[in-house]
Amino acid sequence: MKRILIKLSGEGLSNKKKNLDIDPKIIQELIYQVKELLKKEIEIGIVVGGGNFWRGTSAEKNGIERNKADYIGMLATMMNGLAIQSSLEKSGIKTKIQSSLNIDPKVAEVYIKENCQKYLSNGKVVIFIGGTGRPYFTTDTAAVLIATEIKADAILMGKNGIDGIYDLDPNKNSNAKKFDEISWDEIIERKLAVMDSTAASLARENNIKLYVFNISVNNSILKLIDGVIPHTKVLR
Q1: Which of 90, 173, 201, 224 is deepest in the core (most CB within 10 A)?
Q2: Which pLDDT band, with edges at 50, 70 and 90, does 193 fall under?
Q3: From CA 77, how far away is CA 94, in angstroms rounded?
């Protein structure tokens, strides 16, 4: 893989046992892996969620209007993105942060595909914040849209404690069957909770390749690239 898009959930950055919304240990491991990937001349984009700070769907149930709740969630992705950028920069990794929302350019520049491709080609890590910039769409949909536009070879989606795609929730059913490979058609037909349906349909239409793996494994991204940890490959 030459150009990858890493999808990081907000929950994947947190450590609830230690009451940390952003766990420094997780960030440090991410920094190490990014450095190693750059040594392999792999171009890296990162789409980050905001679920460690805010979840729009949950807020809606508590009386906050859905579109307002989703915009708050976009702000949460900005907090995560800026934290990741700061840590990468302190470690000597050149980055750019691009936002789907218009904000002060001192914080982030607006997402422009051509600029993004130039940064990636020059070895900079590009961090994408703000989701799609519109309510009712998840950061999964944002990841598929961006992967399509920048012509990423694959989306790498890390799950917390789950090493791939199953036909049932493996945390609730010991008989759940894991797929080593699966198609987008089957994911959509079975209504498997890999991505939301909008993101999955968009990925199918644009022939996006997806790898799902357990991000809790030490150096999981590197091990996935080397093919030495369990994962599920979603076929084009």
Answers
A1: 224
A2: confident
A3: 20
